[in-house]
Amino acid sequence: MISDTTRDQVNLLSEQASLDLSQLNYRAAAAKFGEAAALVTSQDPQLAVVIMLEQAKALWDQGYEFGDNEALLEAIAIYGRSLSLVPVTAFPTVWAVTQRHLGIALGVLGERESGTGRLEEAVAAFRAALDVQAREQDRGEWSTTQDNLGNTLLTLGKRAGNRALVEQAVYAHRAALTARSPSDGRAWAGAQNNLGNALATLGEYEEAVAAYRAALTESTQERAPLDWANTQDNLGTALMRLGLHETGTARLEEAVATLRAALTEGTRERAPVLWARIQSNLGVALLNLGMRETGTARIEEAIAAFRAALSEETRERMPIQWAQNIGNEGEALLVLAERLGDAQLAQQAVSQLDQATKVLGDSEHNYSERLSKARALYEQLNRRQKSRGIVGTVARWFGFQGS
Fold it and tell me: 250 near 273, Cβ under 8 Å?
C-alpha cells in the first residue's frame, strides 16, 4: 500500500518531469521519473514500471532527436529492468508494451551501428510482444507493434541486402493499416509513411509517393510539424528516385523543393538528427539534378548539404550514415573535378570515396566503382598538370635564352 505522502511525492516529481519534457529537457525529465519510480518499486511494481516507461521514453527522445546513443543504451537497460518486474503471466499487457518499446530503442540504435545484432534483437522483441497481443482485443497496440516490426525488418533487409525481409516489412505495415483508419490521425499517418518507406525500398516509387501523400493529409505542418517534416523528407527522396528514371528535371526539381520545405520544420535546433538526414537527402537530389545541368552551382550546393549533414552524423555516433555522406560528398567532388579539370578536387574525391568504401564494403552503398573512376581521373589530371608545368618551364627557358 502506497502512503499518501509517497503518492504526493510521485505526483510532484511526475509534474516536474512533464514540465522538463515540454522544454525538451529530456535528461532532467528522465531523472525525475527515475526518482518517482524508485519510491514505489517495492510497494507497487506495476506502477513503478509505468513510471519507468516514461523515464525510458524521455531517454529515447533524447537519443532519437539528438543522436545521443548513450541515452538509448540507458533506455534499453530500463526496459530490461522493467520486464523483470512485470512477468508476462501476471501482467501481459504491460509486458507486451514494454517489449515493444525495447524493440524500438534497439532498432534505432541498430540503425546507427554497423552489423545486424541489435536489429535482430529488436525483431525478436516485437515478435514476443505480438505473441501476447491480439488484434481484436487491442487493435491500436497490435497495429503499433506491427508497424514497428515493419520498420525494423526494413532496416534489416536493407542492411543484409535481403529483399524477402523488405517484403515482410511491407506485409507488416499493410497489416498495421488493417487495424487503423484516417480517424486514428497520426497513428494512421505514421503507418502510411512507414509503408511508403518499405515500398520505396522495393522500387515501387509511385505507390510510395501515394502513401506519403496520404500520410500528409493527417500529419499536417500545423498539427504535427516534425512528423510532417519527416514525411516530406521521405516524399522528396521518392520523387528523386522517380526523377532518376525519367528524362528532364521536373521530378528532381520537385524533390529539391520538397526537401527544402522539410527543413523549415526539421531544424537543427529542434531535431538535429532529422535535420541532418534531410540535408543528406537534399544533397543527393541536388547532385542528381546538377548532373543533368551544365555548370557547377548545383554540385557545389550538394557538397554543402553533405557537409552540413556530416556536422551531426559523425563517425563516432553514426558510422553508417557518416560513411554514406562521405561517399556522396566524394561523388560530388568527382563530378566537380571532371567539370573543372581540377586534380586537387579529384584527389579529395579519392580520399572521401576510399573512406566510405572501407566502412560500407559491399553494402548497397558500395562506392568502389566510383573510387576507381576517381583514381583514374586524378592520375589523368595530375599528369596533365605536370605536362603543362614542363611545357611552361621549357617555354620560359627558351624565352630567357632568346632575350
Answer: no
What is the per-residue pLDDT for 314? 94
Cα–Cα distance between 137 and 173 in angstroms, integer? 19
The beta-carbon contacts of 17-21 under 8 Å, at least 24 apart in sequence, are 17/54, 17/58, 20/58, 21/58, 21/61
Q: Which residues constitute the domain of residue 319?
A: 313-403
**Helix (H) / strand (E) containing 311:** none
Place of cell 527543413: 263
Assigned domain for 96 exists? no
State the DSSP code for 183.
G
User: The whole model's pTM is what?
Assistant: 0.84
Contact between 198 and 155 under an 8 Å Cβ cutoff? The reply is no
Confidence of residue 386 (pLDDT cuts 50, 70, 90): confident
Is residue 387 scored above 80 in pLDDT?
no
The residues, ordered by sequence, that sit 6+ positions from 47 with a Cβ below 8 Å of its Cβ are 2, 40
Which ranges of 161-318 would DSSP assign to H, the alpha helix? 163-178, 186-201, 205-216, 225-244, 250-262, 272-291, 297-310
Distance CA 76, CA 79 (A): 5
CA distance 178 to 189: 13
Per the domain annotation, does 334 fall within a domain? yes
DSSP 8-class letter at 84: H
Amino acid occupying residue 99: Q
Q: What is the CA radius of gyration of the chain?
A: 25
- Tell me the torsion sign for CA atoms 152, 167, 225, 260: positive
3-state secondary structure of 222: coil
Residue whose C-alpha cell reads 560513411 in the numeric block: 323
- In which band, very low, low, confident or very high, does the pLDDT at 363 lie, cut at 50, 70 and 90? low
Structural domain count of the chain: 1
Q: Is 348 inside a domain boundary? A: yes
Asked, for residue 390, whether it belongs to a domain, the answer is yes
- By the 8 A CB rule, do 86 and 98 touch? yes
